[in-house]
Automatic annotation (TrEMBL):
The lineage of its organism: Bacteria, Pseudomonadati, Pseudomonadota, Betaproteobacteria, Candidatus Accumulibacter. It is found in: Cytoplasm. Cell wall formation. This is UDP-N-acetylenolpyruvoylglucosamine reductase. It comes from the Bacteria. GO terms for biological process: cell division; cell wall organization; peptidoglycan biosynthetic process; regulation of cell shape. One of its GO terms (cellular component) is cytosol. Residues 23-196 form the FAD-binding PCMH-type domain. It holds the Pfam family FAD_binding_4. The keyword Flavoprotein applies. The active site is at R169, S246 (proton donor), E342.
């Protein structure tokens, strides 16, 4: 299927800047808002065009125009599909807003379990790809299964938690044809919310906020509100100051490297991992390297949180790439640690 043969719901020459939170310039040769699997079935076999799957655009750096087709996932719907003695099971369409889903589980049915992931930007379909996480919880901890449409075969596949091959900010979908030249498109996600709920409040920022509110035994709603308060203090509103949230992964290093860095930098935040490695705070590394609040061209690192790259107004993808590389070089030179960007570059 070529550009001339595309279905009538496909638009041509579409501006992508308004569909991303960094607000960088870029256009798509073809663009389709996907509201049903039936539309994907009509697009199956479009191998002549490069494909890119777009969610909320909150994890994307546009480096220019895209000569293929952008599939903007907008499949909606959320419902409780069942429960047993141990858990509730909630299913949501890939186009649902993630934060709105979190709120819905807490308000609609008082089904706790997602509260630590409140206010994370993006869509439900994108959440498993990145294995989103915050304050001691990851998507992998709550996913039951998901459905993904195979654009090559025209079939819908089911993945359980193990098949997703989750790791820190990683999944099989990052490596098996997800964004660029996409083969698999996540359409629905099913979450398992355990009835034997226990609060996760050990992370310092969250614990401090709960203490400030004098909540010694918070419920799920109170934890979500505390997470929201912390995130709003640290992260700028993309509608006011365009950004893509946390721009770099927190690096994972061998235990020996962590000990060496801690000896040289006693204030270095570090978090031992189950596999023996140590997670470092990328924001701290960036701040100590002199980039907090510093600009390069029309892009900069946010003055309240060094991990957040912002568009000061009129920035281009070239400027963002230049800033990211400069930050990586500074951190590498000072600490010998390589930072990996979180966003996808298109």
């Amino acid at each position: 299927m070529t550009g001339r043969q595309l279905p009538d719901f496909v638009e041509r020459d579409v501006d992508l800047a308004t569909r991303t939170t960094l607000a960088l310039p870029g256009r798509a040769a073809f663009y389709a808002e996907i509201r049903s699997t039936a539309q994907l079935e009509r697009l199956a076999g479009t191998r002549a065009l490069r494909r890119f799957v777009l969610g909320a655009g909150s994890n994307l750096v546009l480096t220019g125009d895209f000569d293929g087709i952008v599939l903007h996932m907008a499949i909606s719907g959320r419902q409780l599909i069942g429960e047993d003695d141990d858990a509730w099971y909630v299913r949501a369409g890939a186009g649902e807003n993630w934060h709105q889903l979190v709120n819905w589980t807490l308000v609609k049915g008082c089904w706790p379990g997602l509260e630590n992931l409140a206010l994370i930007p993006g869509t439900v379909g994108a959440a498993p790809i990145q294995n989103i996480g915050a304050y001691g919880l990851e998507m992998a901890d709550r996913l039951q299964s998901l459905e993904a449409f195979d654009l090559r075969t025209g079939k819908t596949l089911r993945f359980d938690r193990d098949a997703c091959r989750f790791a820190y900010r990683d999944s099989i979908f990052k490596h098996e044809g997800w964004h660029l030249n996409a083969r698999l498109v996540i359409t629905r996600v099913t979450l398992r919310l355990a009835k034997a709920w226990r609060p996760l409040t050990a992370y310092a920022d969250l614990a401090a906020e709960l203490d400030r509110q004098q909540l010694g035994r918070p419920n799920a709603r109170q934890i979500a509100d505390a997470v929201i308060a912390v995130r709003r203090r640290k992260l700028p509103d993309p509608a006011v100051l365009p950004n893509a949230g946390s721009f770099f992964h927190n690096p994972l290093v061998d235990a020996a490297v962590g000990e060496r860095l801690a000896a040289a930098h006693p204030n270095l935040p570090r978090y031992p991992q189950a596999d023996g490695r140590v997670k470092l705070a990328a924001g701290w590394l960036i701040e100590q390297s002199g980039w907090k609040g510093r600009d390069l061209g029309r892009a900069g690192m946010y003055e309240k949180q060094a991990l957040v790259l912002v568009n000061r107004g009129g920035a281009t993808g070239t400027e963002v790439v230049a800033l990211a590389r400069a930050v990586q070089a500074s951190v590498g030179e000072r600490f010998g640690v390589e930072l990996t960007p979180e966003p996808v570059f298109l």
